[in-house]
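ok so for the tutorial part 2 we go from a plain amino acid sequence to predicted structure tokens. step 1 is just haveing the sequence, like this:
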Amino acid sequence: HRDDVQAMVESWLNQGGRGIDSAWVYFDETAVAAAIANSKVNRSDIFITSKIPACMSNWPARVFVSENLRKLGTDYVDLMLIHSPLGVDCAGTWKALEDLVDKGKLRAIGVSNFKRQDIDSLMKTATIPPAVNQVKYNLFYRNPDTEDACHNSSISLMAYTPLSKNVTATLTHPSVTSIADRHQVAPAQVALRWIVQKGHLVTVQSTSPDHQQQDADVFGFQLSDDEMSELDGVKGMEGVVV
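step 2 — the prediction. this is what the tokens look like for a chain of 242 residues:
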């Protein structure tokens, strides 16, 4: 697993990719560190996102961040997220992250898998609002209420699992393939472009250099309003749009 992660990150960096999405629960920090060291890319040119596992109160959050930095072999992380609203004392956890921003250990902070009530609760005591809420978001699954809550609080939504868990269903969906043919791009690029064109961020994962190149190349074409509407109406294997 470690070798796979290292090879994947090295390939991404060698192709010009500069964003890396890591997390405590992925157990990938040392592999990411090794890939960065081997790539010869300057740390300042790389944007590292990492995550502490959950809400855990102030002091444990500081310990997790410190250990995360040590494993990544870096003095700072560009974006640190709370991976889940589960646990205890999200307010205390957030305060720890805010303090670490002040100390220069974290450049920006955010959350992941937070719904409206979690965001509203956090915003009651936050002095630094979350920069990002990383959530599951794709053609087959999105939560408009969470999307709206992020918009209202000026929080950027970042999509994970952007091709859905059933990648084949996404890449072979008639709407996706017909639009891809029209623009002479890959189906995956259409599914990713739909997210980006909504004004959202996206994080992708691929071990294939060709797929990595496709994933990064979503800015050379634009979907029409009709195409966006058609993709908005897609429903599929991951259940209802909630």
